[in-house]
Structure formats: structure tokens, C-alpha cells
Amino acid sequence: MPIERIVEYKITVPKHAALDIIFRVGLLGEFMPIDRPPKLPAPSIDQETYNSVRRLTEAARTISRYGQGQLDSTIGRFRVKATTFREFVDSVYKNGEELIGRIRQIEDSLNSAEEDLTKLKLLVNVNSLMGTLSLRNIKYIVIEAPYRVLSDFENSIRQIEDAALIRLSEAGDKVHVLVIAPTWELRRINDTIRLHNVKVIELPEGDLSNVEVRIKETESTISSLRSQLESLINSNKPVIRGILEAASVAENVIQTYVNSAVEEGGEVIARIDTIKGQISELEGRLSKLRLLMEAYNGLIKSGIKEMGLKSLEYSLFIVRGQVPPDLGKYSGYVMNIGNDLTAYLIMSNVDYPESKNVVKAPREHLTDLEASVGLLSREAREVERRLSELKGELSEMIRERDEACNYSIEEARQVSDLVTIRGFVLEKNANRFEDFLYRTLTDLAVDARVRKFTRVIQVNSINPHEAPTSEEYPAPISAFKEITYMYGIPRYGELSPVTLTAVLFPIFFGWMFPDAGQGAILLLFGVLMNVLKYNGRNSILRAMFSGKANLWGQLFTMMGAWAIVFSILNSGEVFGMDLIKPLLPWGRVFVNGTINEYWINWVLPLAMLFGFTLLVISLVLKPLNRARLGYRLDAMTLAWVPLVFIGFGLLMMNVGIIPIALLNSSFSILLTPQVRLLGAALMVLGFGGFFGSFMYLKSMPNAEVDATELMVGLTIEGILDAIANTLSFMRLGIIALVHSIFTYMTYHLALTYGLLTPVGLLIMIMLNTLIIAGEGFLTFIQTSRLTFYEVYSKFYEGSGKLYMPLRYMLTALSVELP
């Protein structure tokens, strides 16, 4: 199934309405914003709107701990009506302001009460240790220290000779300690406290006889406050979850605006004008340098290497064309340099405005004209380099701006505060998106600037390097999309190999894992992953049976099914027991306790032929894929590589390097001279077509041809891979043989103890479980290698990005638009 077609939109609105557009398209969930080009600056955000969003996000952080966990569908939803983004943010905060204030009030009271309780308990601990004895010049200090600094703090206190330290209690990640020290060591104690940034706890004063009563009263107060807080939270769960989701939406809108919105004018135009000014200044400087160098070289050719007027006041002007009358009024000497250049020497210090045709030569240059030419030449090269950089930057900025904006630079100078948001929509959803956008702009059109300056353009041609990829497949094939994307996401317009993965992956796995019993276990496990839902405490079971792993369940199901198919076709094994008669003529892997050579002589050649066929297909797909991606000239040349590959492969089979015919005489036709001649003819034809196309393309003017890519395609993929990759497919038969050996050994080991005895059953269960887990994982890895490296690396780039529209995950919040 091909990659879905994409439509690009450019939406220009006044800056304050851009946040409203982003907010609303996120609710629709079908628009994927394009990141702003890197050369263009981010637009600013209205300060009042920013303050409102920050206020909401700070409130959300306050109550975030109370919105964790799954939402109970019976508790209702938090509903908000809004037309604009600012209305949405303010409405959510206003609806939750009283709740947030009440939560903060209870939390402050609770924190204060818990702090009082801690101090009272510490007072009891200190009193139990030291009694009521009061010693002159001895000070008791209670310290609260985090665990991370406790050891260093204790060591520092112990270095003070007359000080002692006792641990009192622990509270979370903090420890309370008692420091006992004489008053003359208080300065060192206080310095140590400041050094380690620990907290001194001031214990309450008063009659110690009623401390226990005060503790009970404080505990009662804490219990009451916690009950109040819990009751408040339980009665306002929809509001809390709604505020949290609204804060997430607000942050998402702001982030999308900062990342995607492009100013039509403003800072963008200012940067363009600044660069143009720098270019103009450098061009003037370069023109002056070139004029001076040309004049100095002319003077040197005339035999003048220095002016020799060190003690006199004079000015030397280099003039192209006629000496201007304003300059000619100063009497002087005219020296014709040639090439319409004149050196005008005035015997006084004259200030005259320079231009592109009149330049005053610095006096320091005139003492050594040859050295000055070298100096000016180096400076001119540096100016040319910087000028080239600025022109490239300007060209790139203008290109990016024209690509991202709806207004021309001239039009944008006449307006202000306009921004453009670009994004992609699936073509099948374009009509619905346009209807939604029309309704949104109609709602916002109460603002005259929105009505006057809004522009919406559907781009005619999409840049394939920017366009995202979206694919939809039926459930069994969709599971293999995740496997394919492990290698890479197809680019927009590229041939997607998802369907090929759905065919090859189970076949490769089943071929290398041919046991019907173990395949049935995998199939059953996959079915259970799709059916069962586990939400308990065990994280492993929750990950496998939470409903989120159903794609892997489908993979296990299909791989298990194909293991059964290949057991029926190729091995006949059920947990290592020969219970099924294979349908293919070469029979079982083991015959009378020994490996069946007849089985090997058929399975290995067929694996190589199957791999050779897949490699040919992949090489045929490569030029098709390159052409679809716009590299049609490369594709024209690469189209000849499959002929070289087939020809070289046939030659290698003919001489026995690829030992298909050597393993099985049924393929002896590959050893005949006719096959050798056919292989040579295909190679000559392929080489001729390749180099003929390559030279033709090189002769074309302005033809962009990636010579490295073409030569790699010919030498590596067309020749060397014909041997290495074809032989690599022998692993299909080799790993299947190893698997059969393991299961055969397991079965016969259990048989020695009695298959139905407890020991025999335990051996069967444990070793088969180990084979399914260990060798199943190994087979999965080898399947991935064959699919990705041997096949996909030949034609598939996989350098695309997923279509991920802006979409808010709202479970408790309900936004009602007009």
C-alpha cells in the first residue's frame, strides 16, 4: 500500500490570532506544523498572554501530585467554553482559581503543622537524652541535614574537639542530629553550618509537662487537614485533571508557536536589511581595494615603487575617469596610469568624500607600493570570503522566507505583526480541514485585522525532504510496520517495504524455527497478548498484557503460525518429536538418529536460490526508488546493475563458489557452459549499459550525478554482494538444522528418564522453554538481519519522518467552541 498523499497549507494571520489557530487545529488533530527554517528568528509572544499561560502552568504544578493515576470515567469532565486561546487559558484558571487557592491554603497549614510536630518530637528526643540538666556554657543545637551532605557535616563537626554529635531521627531524605558544643566553639559550629548549608531547628520553649498533649493536638490537626485536603481533592477530580490537561495544552500551543510560526515582516525583514547593508558596505570596501591595487600595480609598472615625499604634506587620489571638478580645484599633478585610471597628487592634505570612482590612497601605502599590493590582496580575499558568506546567508534567508511566507518582502514592509504557520494535512482529510479552518477564521473575523490580512494558501508542490510519512495497513500487516520502522521510516514518495516485511519476516522466522509445538506456544502467547488485559502491580505482566503490546502480539501470532507451517513442510517436528510427515520430498531432519544429508542437500541450495532471487528483486527496486525520490539520472544508470549482479552470480554458481550445484546434482544445469556464457553475456551487457549511461549523463550540462553512489552500486552491490549476500542466506537452513538438533537432544534426554515421568516432563518443559526464549530471540535477530541488511540495504533509504499531527490528549478536559 503506497504512502498517503500529503497537502501543505500556509496560513497567515495577525500575530495575536496565530495562537488561536494553533489552539484550534490541535483540537482537530489533523494538522502537523512544520518547524520554522533555522535562519529565520522566532516571533515574539504577547506579554499578557505569556503571563496568563505562566500563571496557569504554575497553578498546575501546585496541584500536579493530586492528578496522577487513571481517570475514573464516572467522575465527570471539566468543561470550558472559549473562542480564543487567551479566553481558554483565563477561563480555566478562573474556574479553578478558588480550588487552587484553597488547596494552597490547606497545604500551607498542613506544612506548618507538620513542622510544629517535628519540633515537638525533637524536643522530646532531646529531653530524653539530656534530661532537664542545664550546663553553663554548653549549647544544644538541633540540625536538619539532607542525606547527601550528612557524612561531610558529621566529619566537620567531629574535627571540633569539644563538640559532640548525636543522631536523633530520620524524616524522608533528611536526618535530624543534635550538636552539643561549648559556647566558645559556637563560631566554628556556625561556620560549619553555613559551609554545608544545613538548617538549624529552633525548638519550642515552654513547660515540658504538656508536650505530649501538644503533640496529640498537633497530630489531630494534621489528620483533620489531611481529611479536608482529601475531601477537597476527591470532590474536584475533574477540575484538577482538567487544569492539568489545560496547562499541557497551553504549553503545547506556546511551544508550537515558538517552533513553527514565521514572521512575515518585523525581525525577519530587519535581518534581511541588515545583511544587505553589510553586503553593500563590503562591496564598497572591495571596490576600493581593487581600485587601489590596480592603481598601485600601474604605478609599479611605470617604475614608481614609492612616492618619496616623506617630509611633505600631500594627498594622492586614485580616480577612474575624469577628475571631478570639486577635486580639480585643488592644484596638483596628474599621472595617467592607464585603463582609464588617474593618480592625482595634491601637495597638501585634502579631505574629499570617497566614492566608487575616487579613492584617497593612505600615506602608509605609498612608502612601499609592492608591499601594499600584497597587503591589499590579502585583505581583498578576506573581504571576498566574508562577502560570499553574507550573500549565501542572505540568499538562504530569502529562500527560506519565500518558502515559509505568503506575503512578498515588499508587501510585508507595509504591514506588521503578521505570522505564517505552515503544516501538512493528509489529502483525504483536506476538505474537512478546510471546512474547520473556514469556521475558525469566521469566528476570529470579528477582528478587522484578521479579516483584512488573513491568507490561506495550499502549496502546489511539496518538498519531499520536509513532507512526513503516513501509512495505514490492515491489522496483520500494520504490526510489521513497527518492525520496518526499526530500520527507518520511508521518505515521502519512497517505496515502502512494509508489505514486503509482512511477507519476508514470518517466512524467515518460520524457516529457521520449524517446530509445530514451539510455534503453537508462540501463537498462543501472541493471542493472549492481544486478548488479555492486566493492570496489576507486576510491571512485566503489565507491559505484556496491558493492551499496548497488541502489535507484538500479532507478530508472535504470525511467527508462531509460520513455524507451524514450516514444521509441516520441512521438518515434521513437534517439540523435537517426529509426529508430522513433512510435505516436501526431502523428509525429516533426522533419520534413524542421524542427520539426513538429503535434507541438507536440498534446504541449503534452496535457501541460496531464494536469497539470490530476493537480492535481484531488491536491486530492481533500487532504481525505481531513486526515480521516485527525484534522482532519475541516477536511476537510469543503476537500472543496469541487476544484469551485472545476475551475470556475476551465475558465473559464481558455475565455478562452484556459490555451491548450489555442488550440494545438489538436481541443479547441475548451473555448471554447464551455456550458463557460463549467459552469465558473461549479462555482465558485458550490464557493464556496457552502466558505463554508457554514466558517460552520457556526465556529458549532459548541469547534470547532477552522484558518482560515488553509482560506483558503490556497481562494484559492491552488483559484484561482491553476489557472493557474500547469497551465501549469507544459507543461515536459513543452518539455523533450522541447529534448532532441530536442540529439540532432538531435548526430546531424547527426556526420553531416557521416561517421557511421562516427572523428571522427563520437567526436562521437556524447562529445555523447550529455554529454546523458545533463547533460540527464538536469536532467530528474531537473524530474521531482522536478513530482512534489513541483505535486502533493504540495497534499495531502501528509510530517512523519512512520521506524520505526527498536533493533537491534545484530553481525557478529563472538554473544550466547547462556538
Descriptive report:
With 818 residues, the protein is of the alpha+beta class. Helices cover 59% and strands 11% of the residues. It has 26 helices and 19 strands. The strands form six sheets. Strands 1, 2, 8, 13 and 14 form a five-stranded antiparallel sheet that branches. Strands 5-6-4-7 form a four-stranded antiparallel sheet. A four-stranded antiparallel sheet has the order 10-11-9-12, covered by helices on one side. A hairpin with a 2-residue loop joins strand 10 (332-338) and strand 11 (341-346). The longest helix has 46 residues, at 85-130. The protein is extended. The mean pLDDT is 86.
Chain oligomer state: single chain
Derived from helix and strand composition plus strand pairing, the structural class reads alpha+beta
Biggest beta sheet attributes: 5 strands, antiparallel
How much strand content do the residues show? 5-15%
Give the CA-CA distance, first to last residue. 39 Å
What is the mean predicted local confidence, pLDDT? 86
Overall shape: it is extended
| Tally of separate helices | 26
How many strand units? 19
Q: Fraction of residues in helices?
A: 55-70%
